[in-house]
Design a protein that fits this description.
Number of helices: 9
CATH architecture: 3-Layer(aba) Sandwich
Number of strands: 10
Strand order of the largest sheet: 3-2-1-4-5-10-9
CATH class: Alpha Beta
CATH topology: Rossmann fold
Largest sheet: 7 strands, mixed
Strand content: 15-25%
Length: 297
Amino acid sequence: MIPAQTIRSLISPDSFGIEIRPGHKPVAAKADGFSCLVLDDRSRERICEETRRESPDRPDLAKRVETVDLLGRPAEILTLFQSFGGVPGTLSYIISAHNIEHIPDPVRFLSECQSLLAPGGSLFLTMPDRRACFDYFRPASTTADLIAAYLEKRTRPTWTQIFEHRSMACRLESEGRELTSFPLGTPPEALTPRRELLECFTEWKRQTESPDEVVRDAHCHTFSPASLRLVIEDLRFLGLVGLEIGEICQAGEGDNEVYARLDAPLAPSAPLSPEIFYERRHALLSRLRREDESFFR
């Protein structure tokens, strides 16, 4: 299942939406007739420059980069849209590919996306499956991780997250290339962990003693299909997220991504009874355990 193809089949060029950091691969491109705003924390010129630098043999890619309408961080989506003159509750869709794992406070992001969506509108998320990228050796993020970020009102990665992101990273060496994303099912013996534990610790210690104001990028959170479903269901039960799960599944050409469609409810729904919720939660916890056990068997 290819997320971009699925998303395009579910949205109409006549509907109004936002696509977050599409780079040179927009799903709902203006050039294709979609009425879609682009949100990015980089200017179009910078994106084009980065694209040319990363793919010097593909000068055509920079031509696909579209005008940035909302200049700012994805975590500021509500403020950016309102500053643009947009009215909350009017969007048909929001597309966010490989962004939510970078966002320090996903609960706030999900809540703001819901406030922007019209009833029945959809938030489309794509993210790397932690079992098929450089996060391979990291554990899945838990509900507690996301709640801590929400209660602390985080606006940047913590040094705990930066340290884990860097010190646990790995790659797949294949045909003279170092791949940071690889097919699901790649055995751990085939991967090469980075040997930078001391360097990561030294930098963390230095920042503790003399912090600077530089905002560093990191995968703040890691997911698999089962872990994402568990977290969303927990957050819904706790009243922190109101979006409904439309679909969460394995995706990508090598099954190395997680795809999710979260829908803004058409009308308020009655909450699950605790008994039903905890039965479902038990099933999800079991599914998460089986997911890991079958993968690492």
